[in-house]
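User: I'm new to structure prediction. If I give you an amino acid sequence, what do you actually give back? Let's try with this one:
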Amino acid sequence: MEKAIQEDPPVTLAGGRLLAQISTSIVAMLREHYGRGPMKAKTYALDDIIVVVMRGSGFTALEETLMYSGQPGRVIAMREEFQSVMADRHKTTIENLTGRKVVAFVSQAHVEPDITVEMFFVDGPLPGFGAVEVIEPA
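Assistant: Good question. You get back a string of structure tokens that encode the predicted 3D arrangement of the chain. For your 138 residues, that looks like this:
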């Protein structure tokens, strides 16, 4: 009689390890699909909000050509379109890492300085990352 192999429970990341893994995962996706990634990435978590701030992603030759021709708005529009294509992958990554469902995803790109912000709103607070909610001042 064969003994059933018991699988170890999944390792749940928390605190700084969770934030680091979110940053690493989002940057890896950008590098894979965009051809390059940011020089710096920092992830913040507060209650049910996760914010990934990426700086210095560098521009592709196409983006630089558009910017130098006086059309930085087209670069932002192109990056926003790219993020909408990547939205499901981003959400799935956050859901897998946090165990929470992403209920909203907001992405914003900025040209000068080169900053991209990815915000994820999840269906409940992350353990260890709190906030105080004021509903109606007394």
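You can read the tokens as a compact description of the fold. Here is one thing that stands out. The first strand starts at residue 40 and ends at 46.
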